[in-house]
Amino acid sequence: MKIHTFHSLWFLLLLSGSLAAAPLQVARDLSALGKEARERGVPILLAVSQEHCGYCVRLKEEILQPMEISGDYVDRVLIRELLIDPWEDAVDFDGVRKKTALISDRYRVWVTPTLLYLDPDGRELTSRMLGVQTIEMYGYYVDEAITKALRQLRTQEAPAYTPTPGDLGIEAEVTDAL
Question: What is the DSSP string of 49-75?
């Protein structure tokens, strides 16, 4: 009995380790991704990242990959990674292949990681998330943003979200009233 239990626990440990290492799917064709999102009626969570970005790796390993593995988000969101390293390219939402850095420039992404919540046409649905600050609460904030994006997409209460200067990392002009 002890041997059977030991082997079962060892097998589960191996299985959990291999699942944790499952890579996040890289977006190579945003046009096809948009089509899939439209068919499924879900938004796209596009994690803009770079190969050498330690925060990106941590975000993927501790938040995004476990979300994918859990299966709890299958009917809520498509999660993909957009690598913006200089040698990377992808098909954009308009069907044209281009450097992924140009795609991120269109969204005015200036820091990695940045999480974009997009509709099937590539328009932002809710506030983006810039960088990683408190990883302990990050999952909660991602989940809340997915809920907002899904509600926006399904109810179409208002036009797509327009990024604010704060979303884009643009500081408001400071003036001295004195």
Answer: E-TT-HHHHHHIIIIIHHHHHH-TTTT
Amino acid identity of residue 118, one-letter, is: L
Extract the residue ranges of the chain whose pLDDT is less than 70.
Answer: 1-21, 157-161, 164, 166-178
Write out the residue range of the structural domain in which residue 34 sits: 23-155
User: The domain that contains 52 carries what CATH number?
Assistant: 3.40.30.10
Q: Is 139 exposed, middle or buried (0-12, 13-18, 19+ CB in 10 A)?
A: middle
- Distance CA(55)–CA(118), nearest Å, equals 22
Quick: pLDDT tens for 38-54. 999 999 999 999 999 99
Count of the separate structural domains present in the chain: 1
Does the pTM of the predicted model rise above 0.70? yes
Question: Is there a contact between 79 and 34 (Cβ–Cβ < 8 Å)?
Answer: no
